[in-house]
Amino acid sequence: MKSTQSLSTTCSLMCALLLGIGIVGTVQAHEASHTHPVKAKAATRQVGFQLIRNATMKLTYAGTTFLIDPMLAVKGAYKGFDGTPRSELRNPLVDLPVPIADVLKADAIILSHIHEDHWDPAARYLVPRTMTIFTQDEKDATKVREDGFTDVRVLTEEGLDFKGTRLIKTLGKHGSNHFFAVPQLAELLGDVMGIVFLRPNHPTAYVAGDTIWNKNVEDALTRYQPDVVFLNTGYAQINGFDGSIIMGKDDVARAYRFSPKASIVGVHMESVNHAMLTRKELRAFIDAQKLDKRRVLVPNDGQSYRF
């Protein structure tokens, strides 16, 4: 969900960001990395995962690390999203759990879309201009290049190879039809993508992105049969509308049942003002639904798994 406020980088913001680099460097990850018991494989065939914060995560295949949807500002750097619940709160709601220098240790960045909570002014300032960045379409790629990035590539549904991993664009929808029936809101929500990661002899991963549950998601799950599925489950809302513009707890159960062999990971929670589902609520739902907690994971910021 992008804000209507300006994304221009001001001197005061840069000062806050630079001060923040020192601040976040003192914060530790909540939990140490561990191997998921269901999906444990030979180390060279594992997929590494770390939730950074919000939808920002890192996936590692055979030594190649992808940083997805980086939102890198310090706590409270931006005003809340206008027209959404709790807009009086400032985003991000929490600080980064690891130093920015560690977050930026990646071979490439993937942007599912360029709303401010997925590609913020801090990331635009801090990411090296030569970093490889993948976008969903040429429109987003053009905007990224305007900030001086020199290696911007557009993902397709046919897929692109990067260092031995196949990256495939999947489709999504950032809200149901009643949101998109309002032209101004449809323009604001815009297009989004998910990403499938394929590599020989490695688990297949599917990052659904900022989408509701729909046929696009079902098609991706059916076609690629992923071993691990990452869902943005914060149930982000807009004032005056029923429902959410991303997934929520019921969609975790849907994915669990639709893909009975996959691990399901819920992210995009407790970091921006309009994301209303908490980890505590999602974990309670998982217990109430008697879902296997070895398959359904709700990581804290900074937490890592191997699949």
Q: Could you describe the 3D structure shown?
A:
There is one protein chain. It is built from nine helices and 15 strands. The protein is α/β, with parallel strands linked by helices and 307 residues long. The chain has a single domain, classed as Ribonuclease Z/Hydroxyacylglutathione hydrolase-like (Metallo-beta-lactamase, Chain A, 4-Layer Sandwich), CATH 3.60.15.10. The N terminus is likely disordered.
Measured distance between first and last alpha carbons: 29 Å
Q: What oligomeric assembly is this protein in?
A: single chain
How many separate domains make up the residues? Answer: 1
**Main beta sheet strand tally, sense and closure:** 8 strands, mixed
Largest sheet, order of strands side by side? 1-15-2-3-4-5-6-7
Number of helices in the DSSP assignment:
9
CATH class: Alpha Beta
Query: How much helical structure, as a percent, in the residues?
Result: 10-25%
Secondary-structure map:
Elements: H1 11-24, E1 34-35, E2 47-53, E3 56-61, E4 64-68, H2 100-103, E5 108-110, H3 121-126, E6 132-135, H4 138-145, E7 151-154, E8 160-162, E9 165-171, H5 177-180, H6 183-189, E10 193-198, E11 205-207, H7 215-224, E12 228-232, H8 249-258, E13 263-267, H9 279-288, E14 296-297, E15 304-306
Parallel strand pairs: 1-15, 4-5, 5-6, 6-7, 11-12, 12-13, 13-14
Antiparallel strand pairs: 2-3, 2-15, 3-4, 8-9, 9-10, 10-11
